[in-house]
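Hi there, hope your week has been kind to you so far. For a while now I've been wondering how a particular protein folds. I'm sending you its amino acid sequence along with the backbone structure tokens. Could you read through the record and tell me how the tokens relate to the sequence? Take your time with it, there's no hurry, and the full record follows here.
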Amino acid sequence: MMTLFEALIRRIFSHVDDAGAELEIGSANELGRTDIKITFPGKRFSLLDGDESSDSDAEVVEAFSDKISCSYQGGYNVVRISVRQSAWVFILPNLVAIIAAIVVGNGLEFMLDDSERQILTTEWVMPLENLFTNAVLMIGAPMTLFSLLKNVTDSFIVAERHSSSRKLFISSVASSLFVIALALFMGLVFVQWALSAGGVTERFDLGFANWTLASAVNQIIPSSIIEPFETISPIPMIVVALLIAGALNSIGKSFGIWKRAIDACYDLFSGILRIVMAAFPLACFLLFLEILLSKDGVVQFLDIFFIAVVVFVCSLPLLVAYALSLRAHGIPVREFAIKLWPLVKENLAIGSVIDAVPYNTHYCVKNFGISRERLEKELPILAQTSLDGNCFIL
């Protein structure tokens, strides 16, 4: 973080024309989020200028650009560096929205009769809820594609820059492929059986829950290039991303140009998605209000809870696979799990696998007795190439 701060300050100094301009540095604490705030006058400040892309400070700023936000207000540039963000920033507004929905729903229960509640639900609540869902799907599709492209191309770059760790990279990719296969098996076999046995598929049209193996194969590569963006299933999008990444890595000198374009598109759609997700508490309010106003609302809520339980159970085989891997290497699973929990909590607080590398190195040397030299060499590679969790969720 200090390296980023120093690089950013030097770039700001080179940007400001007036040597006597005041530079104000402070902290901003808002709802569990801590930022370093830098304010200075002058023309609009840009994080990265095209003619300075080879500058070492520019490389540092570009590497951590997702932690920096810039705005221009009344002749002053305001630059924020995100230091720490509590999970309550996301959880608290949604809890308030759910409580508000319960209060409003119970109030409407006494004020309106069944027909009026039905009209309110179908004419107002559900259309507004669908509006948010459609916006998320509309932005989420290209966001998923560029996120996958960024991860895959970053992994190729890391593998090329660290040829001595190519074996580690190959193992990481093989692990992700195993996770994808496990997730597909659990989705096509266990999830279908569990949801059918629970009667959920009779009340919900989940689409994927009624897939057969043949239909799943047909879904992998659709006949239209537009179709991957129109389906909720991420599998066609993964295939498209892999095909594009393979093509990019075979075009030689143009790779850098396309890589910068991918990163720029990723940043753009990330920003759009953040704007859309700002309305997520409102969507929670509408969802729970719809459940409370509907005749079978309680049944719907229990079905949603059951689906969440099924998804959680699907992750248990992945944990078992990790446990078997530990046993195969002679590591006691129980002792490892006890020592792992404090590490997981700290990583959740840090929020970034790249930023967590120094802490993880220190903790693993102290508690697991792993070689510091090996960790300092391999953890940064794993932080950029290990995508097991992302692959399983997708």
